[in-house]
């Protein structure tokens, strides 16, 4: 055994490293299997997707993706035979099931709604959060602690508890089923998280930077823009990911407040199940595509995300 | 460049008074140092001159203009921070040019000015480097560059050498003074390090608990401390104090300390009976067996050219700086002879220095120069 002092960190032994590794692998498998299952199902045919025992090896098919992007109607074989030759892969696959493509599904517009609402609300929450965090960090705000607690408390209520009042309010205001309404709502929920996270990061940036800039002839806003903001990028990126994940995944408010034009992907995907039997491959295809943006965003900003988890405790 | 005049300046944070009725004038082109222990109000005073804090009362005049309540950016001053505050996302060139950018100066002119400044500070080879990779001394030079590039009315520096290694610090003290001699910029420099203050300053203000204890040249402050605090704060080791009682009459030339008669500079005022203190710099003590003032050697610190000898007397330990050659053993009894012309007298209660002949010399000399 190595001798340790108060300041030294004990180097992990080989055995503990192996045990830790095993635990991490086991946990990773448990987490990743459902995702792999969804990914695999999206490439199965509907019969394969409900086969028992489940098929691990199967002939991949894009039928799920065809079904996701289209709406179909059932037709008699005579009618289908009377049509000309199939124009696309999806056309052909659909006809094999005695159906013809009636038109595009709502998935693309719903997905676009999700993008607009999630990124829009993330931008607003981070923008407002950065300014308020800066204010709380640098100025003597009367009752600052109480205000900060109030801001945090807005996040404590479960969405379902406030869903009905918000639903009634939104109906009166004409915000029901609008992208603006959803952006406002998600901004309101996320701004508390943004203020708290960003305050930690901004507290870590010494005041001397703005003071130096202000003495050198800049206004406070210019000093903030040119000296504080560039150094807060890590915190801003981390906060943006957290806000985006929330807004992207949110289901309860979206299910209640959106039904048509502003519906986001999460409440839309389950509705696929109902169309023409339980179409699991189409649901799985929708889920897979839905996961892509958040996955890309997280991978791109993973360093900032890790720093964000330490809540600004570590500075470069 | 301009003169800085501070009148009745006061700053309170709630109940805590950080600066109390400060008055001083920094003349055009002077290197002025505010010296004091941490929490004495020196940095607060500096920040008020800069406009980073607003005073509770009093006035600040820059070149005759009242700037007391003006914004920092409207005062035309430059500030060097203790931690330099170099912008980590900019390279050296951009850091130095940053104040000029605020003035909307054309980029070609910024380029020339930045390069001139860098050459002056001998950092022109670093211009395109990132500031995060720089050594302490070079960071300091970049911070100075950012201050002088603008040619402001005055420079304010808040312990700019505080974070440097001793080696760099000595080098920078020399460089700063040399730079000041070349550009003659009015400078206010805050430090708690008396070595920095003594070696750079034209004038020093010694502060304690928000009050300026003494304002004067390094020589005045060392030779004629106005209060016991100043006497104790300046000098290494600091001034020794020996208690004595009774009052003093105008014209007195002798006092009695521990039963021994000690000649002192002629007293110039009457002092009512009370506790008094005799102040003696360590280098004004000699060992002389004929002296009635006696003590026993307690310990020695050998410094090469001199040695510091701690002597235990009836009134506690006093330290003497004597030539290194003298051989002494712990426990030896010695007599202490004091250089009478250099002694200070204090009232113990208020800590105030008693006016004596040493102050005459000062006023005479001032009269001659004036």
Describe this protein's structure:
The complex is a heterodimer of chains A (316) and B (370). Chain A has 316 residues and is mainly alpha-helical. Chain A folds into 2 domains: 73-105, no CATH class; 108-279 and 291-309, MetI-like (MetI-like fold), CATH 1.10.3720. Chain A contains 17 helices and 2 strands. Chain A has helices spanning 14-41, 46-49, 63-69, 77-82, 89-96, 107-138, 144-153, 159-173, 179-203, 208-215, 220-231, 233-249, 252-257, 265-268, 271-274, 280-300, 302-309, and strands at residues 70-74, 99-104. The longest helix of chain A is centred in the middle third of the chain and has 32 residues, at 107-138. In chain A, 34% of the residues are buried. Chain B folds into 2 domains: 4-223, P-loop containing nucleotide triphosphate hydrolases (Rossmann fold, 3-Layer(aba) Sandwich); 239-369, OB fold (Dihydrolipoamide Acetyltransferase, E2P) (Beta Barrel), CATH 2.40.50.140. In chain B, 26% of the residues lie in helices and 31% in strands. Chain B is elongated and about 75 Å long. The two termini of chain B are 23 Å apart. Classes of the chains: A mainly alpha (316), B alpha+beta (370). The interface between A and B is medium-sized, with 17 and 23 residues. Chain A: This is Carbohydrate ABC transporter permease. Chain A: The chain crosses the membrane at residues 20-40, 115-136, 148-170, 182-202, 223-248, 280-301.
